[in-house]
Amino acid sequence: NRSFIETVMTVAHMAYFVIGDFTNARIILQEATEIVKGVAVPFAPILRMGSDFEPITLSDLRVNHRSLLETFIYDDERHLMENLQNRIINPAIEKEKELRSLRQNI
Question: What is the pTM of this model?
Answer without folding.
Answer: 0.88
